Amino acid sequence: MRSFSNTYIFVFSLIMVTIVAVLLSFVSVQLKPRQEMNVQIEKKQDVLRSVGKAEKVAEAADKNSYIDEEFGKYITDSYVVDYQGNRVEADAFEVMLNLAAENRKPREERNYPVFVYSENGGEKKYVVPVRGKGLWGPIWGYVALEGDLNTIAGAVFDHKGETPGLGAEISTGWFQAPFTGKTIFDENGKFVSIEVAKGGADPSSKHQVDAISGGTITSKALEEMLIDCMEGYVAHFKELSKLKS
Amino acid sequence: MSTEKEPLFSPKNLKLLTEPLGKSNPITIQVLGVCSALAVTVKLKPSIVMALSVMVVLAVSNVVISLMRKMVPPRIRIIVQLVVIATMVIVVDQVLKAYAYDVSKQLSVFVGLIITNCIIMGRLEAFALGNKPWPSFLDGLGNSAGYGLILILVAFFRELFGSGTLLGYHVIPQAFYDAGYVNNGMMILPPMALVVVGIFIWVQRSKNKDLIEN
């Protein structure tokens, strides 16, 4: 076997890592626009899923244009409010894409995006994005509220790297379905959010859903996330429902 | 190494391609790369994508390492191999994220974990470092095909019996369900992948007695 000097080894390594670095940066820069578009499409799809739309996505020939079209058809309005419930000049979609940065601010200073869904001018539903920290990484979701701004019309959740079979179950139907029909305010109009109850939800409770056995930390994190992200909407929701009644 | 020119598909070279499919299969004979074989084989589609990803990574890494084999200082050869593999894996991961986003989400960490797939480092260390680029390329293709073959077979049985579908299409007729047939939930869980791989190993060895170790 040939022997190599230390200098050779150093120079060899340096050249190697430089080539690799250039190659990887090039690939990353080239593919970035497409990857970002995928993320945007996915967010649109999740907003639609929370109100029970975009169900035919598996059959769509061109997923991206199908989602874009559905999103344009059903999401009739979107806006941003602040903690006091005042409208803010900002693009709701932009804010949603940067929700992680938004959530690092204290609740009082955040911007809160709202997406309004309505089908053929019918009853409106309000979709709000939520995002928090799971056990291994971020978890996020979309909660759709009925026109009374109290009853949940649907919720979808997803995660970056929760444990498969345990915490990762938050992205499955059996976990998400029970959210539908629950209410986030109690009868006195106090914001109580939804409790993810370990050991099973009380069937008579309007504010509890089943936690995941073996996935307690993710379950609790999801509960925290709902409180953290939805509390800021309370002022806006109260105002909206006052306007309606 | 012989200096005379060999035909591209000489019997010796073809053997590199075909042997890993059967009697030197990386999964059933060498029992390498089992971790990912268990994890991604719930459905057929991610298994196929995983098999193709491993194929690209292994074939290209084998060629790159083989081209560099005379320059690589032996003392840092493992690091060099890892850098080459990791680079390829990141490229594959980025391409999947851009062009097959849903599948890349299903495969999640397992694409990244191709880096630690023993088959790849095993082939680089055992073959590419001592052979010319073309045989190395064939060796890479052969071994990843052997890996992919088992992956796809396992996924075929798991998806068929676990979900009653193939590539997402229902293949078990509704009449079966009406007659009381139920999908086997066990097939979806990782332990059944181990059992299925075990059955493959059993079948292969009972057909070819030479493979049985004493």
What is the strand and helix layout of this fold?
The complex is a heterodimer of chains A (245) and B (214).
Chain A: H1 6-50, H2 63-74, E1 75-81, E2 87-88, H3 92-97, H4 99-103, E3 112-117, E4 125-133, E5 138-145, E6 152-159, H5 173-176, E7 195-197, E8 208-210, H6 216-230, H7 234-244
Parallel strand pairs in A: 7-8
Antiparallel strand pairs in A: 1-2, 1-3, 3-4, 4-5, 5-6
Helix pairs in contact in A: 1-2
Chain B: H1 11-18, H2 34-39, H3 44-68, H4 77-99, H5 101-107, H6 109-112, H7 118-126, H8 133-163, E1 165-166, E2 169-170, H9 174-178, H10 190-207
Antiparallel strand pairs in B: 1-2
Helix pairs in contact in B: 1-8, 3-4, 3-5, 3-7, 3-8, 4-5, 4-7, 8-10
Shape of chain B: globular
Fraction of helical residues of chain A: 40-55%
Domain unit count of chain B: 1
How many strand elements of chain B? 2
| Cα-based radius of gyration of chain A, to the nearest Å | 22 Å
**In total, how many beta strands of chain A?**
8
Could you explain the architecture of this structure?
The complex is a heterodimer of chains A (245) and B (214). Chain A contains seven helices and eight strands; from the N terminus they run ααββααββββαββαα. In chain A, helix 1 (6-50) packs across helix 2. Chain A is globular, with a radius of gyration of 22 Å. Chain A starts with 5 loop residues before the first helix and ends with a helix. Chain A has a domain at 78-244. In chain A, the strands form two sheets. In chain A, strands 2-1-3-4-5-6 form a six-stranded antiparallel beta sheet. Chain A has a two-stranded parallel ribbon with strand order 7-8. Chain A is of the alpha+beta class and 245 residues long. In chain A, strand 1 and strand 2 (87-88) form a beta hairpin. In chain A, 40% of the residues lie in helices and 19% in strands. A two-stranded antiparallel sheet of chain B has the order 1-2. Chain B has 214 residues and is mainly α. Chain B has helices at 11-18, 34-39, 44-68, 77-99, 101-107, 109-112, 118-126, 133-163, 174-178, 190-207; strands at 165-166, 169-170. Chain B has one domain (28-206). Chain B is built from ten helices and two strands; from the N terminus they run H-H-H-H-H-H-H-H-E-E-H-H. In chain B, helix 1 runs parallel beside helix 8, helix 3 runs parallel beside helix 7 and helix 4 packs across helix 7 (118-126). The two termini of chain B are 33 Å apart. The chains are: A alpha+beta (245), B mainly alpha (214). The interface between A and B is medium-sized, with 21 and 22 residues.
